[in-house]
Amino acid sequence: MDDGRSQEEYIRQVLEAYRKTPGTIGTVRRADRMLAAQLHQRGVAVTVIENAFVLAAARRLARPADALPLGTIGSLAYFLPVIEEVLGMHVSPEYFQYLRHKLERVASTR
């Protein structure tokens, strides 16, 4: 875990990042809160979860222009496979910073 933050603070931070992730419905459900608590209990760092959000959002935006539109993400559980992927990655933090900047640029042009 990143630091000694309380479970409540951890859950708040994860859910706030989820809510702000492009492509999500922007609301938090009870199941999302429970999953965030489980991630805390597993000791998954908030930075890992935030990086998974960024990676998934970047992948969704990088689809071909003529592809069918993707549905809105309605659950934190959507990101579980990407969280597991990020946990196994050996990528520098700069890569995720690069993706964040790309997402910010795309968002500012829309």
Compute the number of helices.
Answer: 5
pLDDT under 50 segments (min length 5)? Answer: none
Could you state the order of secondary-structure elements as H and E? Answer: HHHHH
User: What fraction strand?
Assistant: under 5%
Alpha-carbon distance between the two ends = 35 Å
Rg, nearest Å: 14 Å
Q: What is the overall pLDDT average? A: 91
Given the helix and strand composition, which structural class is it? Answer: mainly alpha
The percent of residues in helical segments reads 55-70%
Q: Which word captures the global form?
A: globular
Number of strands: 0
Set out the fold topology.
Layout: H1 7-20, H2 30-42, H3 46-61, H4 80-88, H5 93-108
Helix pairs in contact: 1-2, 1-3, 3-4, 3-5
Task: Explain what this protein looks like in three dimensions.
By secondary structure, this protein is mainly α. Helices cover about 60% and strands about 0% of the residues. The protein is built from five helices and no strands. The longest helix has 16 residues, at about 45-60. The radius of gyration is 14 Å and the shape is globular.
Could you give a short description of this structure?
This protein is mostly helical and 110 residues long. It has 5 helices and no strands.
